[in-house]
Glutamine-dependent NAD(+) synthetase (Cellulomonas xylanilytica), 568 residues
Amino acid sequence: MVRLGHMPFPRIALAQIDTRVGDVDANAQAVLDWARTAAQAGAHLVVFPEMTLTGYPIEDLALRASFRRGAEAALQRTARALADEGLGDLAVLVGTVGEKSVTPVHEPGAPEGPRRPTNQAVLLQHGQVQVRYDKHHLPNYGVFDEYRIFAAGDDVCVIDVLGRRVGVVVCEDIWQDGGPVSQMDENEVSLLVVLNASPYEEGKGHQRVELAARRAHEVEAPVAYVNLVGAQDDLVFDGGSFVIATDGTVLTSAPQFVEHLLVWDLLGDDDAPATGPIAPPLEPDEEVYRALVMGLHGYVTKNGFRSVVLGMSGGIDSALVATIAADALGGENVVGVSMPSVYSSDHSKDDAQDLAKRIGADFRVQPIKAMVDAFEAEIPLEGVAAENLQARVRGVILMAISNREGHLVIAPGNKSELAVGYTTIYDAGSIGGFAPIKDVDKSRVWALARWRNNAALDGVFGPGEIPPIPESSITKPPSAELRPGQVDQDSLPPYDLLDEVLDAYVEHAEGRAELLARGFDPAVVDKVVTLVDRAEWKRRQYPPGTKVTALAFGRDRRLPITTRWREP
């Protein structure tokens, strides 16, 4: 859109892209590629996510001076490469690690102090670095550890784009009152852009939109919010970039869980704001499922693997995890191993084979009886020790296949079992490099399986797909099948009750008094609380897994392993 007789309206591009921590050369190339695409779309300013060149979170890499030097060299090369490709006029805002000297405030005349890393937004244009802005508010809660790592900035950043004033802040700067956002109205900006690497949590999307709406009202200008997409370690970044008006109206938005370039025109301050495509919201089960797929895909590929192996028991957990793996990597890159014991039911073995056929996995059968017998011939075992031996033999088999063929072992354990320690440590359910549903409770496992099968019938993943998960895997009582007739409810409360108690105790930190006030049976409360508190040593040894809730084991919740405190 162009004004007759005047300069064109600034066209803003928000590039929500996937990066990898530490791979500054590949990340810099992505900036060049997406900047080229933005220029072809007529953009005058393209905004990339927080810490684009370095990836996020870089954690203690930021403390290495050699890493900061490498990131700075990549930044300078990127600025020159943009100009060499004829993109010098394009304004490119990119996140990276910077550094600043830290001089004690009580000694203004003191010599320059040590240099500390900063979380930085940089404007590249005309082959050079034009502006640097250091993030002010450094989060130190949940998954964030920025206050320990970075030094805070103190400057306000306003850039010029075709004669219009555009304010620039980074992520947490809009989550905290005061700071640079409170000073934007003094600078009379026409737009506030926010570079973000905001990790996914279920339900967090509306919080971002509501917060951005408040800031837009505060600065009396639209807010353009660009977010990272992809997965790094146990975090998923869901994208969902958007532009919001001062009255809280979302003007345009990008889809979640895909790379995307969102283009929007900044019209005159007195004009009604431009609108664009609005990505349809995902319903909760689909959102969580897609986060799990992205989390597994990112972890596997960014660690140099191409395929995974897991035990297929015919149960619901391994069925869901295998399906997630097939969606993330392709069924041909999933190896499922059935490892029946003398107690394995025929329907479990049949369900495992049926699942593998539906998702196109490489299916193998490796009975464990002879191995268990050989072990027990040397060390006679009975009771729980004998049951656990069966489980651990399965873990050894999976690791042997991994070592021989180069697959990453993935663990199918869920959050409910992890919470109460209902796992055999070093077995097929807990061993491996990644645990895709580690942050998904058992009740949600069934809901996700139902959603995925219905999505197949609705053609969400392509026309003509059959439901991947056998119905009997969803409906039969869950069991480890380590002794005749065993079911999980022999040792645990029903999962719907268990998950309700766990949600209150773990997610909301309610104590025994609050749990009893809710009406839970005292015996159930005491059993669940005791199991959770005693299982911390197991949780510490569990593989990482995709975080999808506000409070995930490992990232957000850790108790002293040897605690003896009990609430009266």
Q: What stands out?
A: The radius of gyration is 26 Å. The chain has two domains: 11-105+112-266, 287-487.
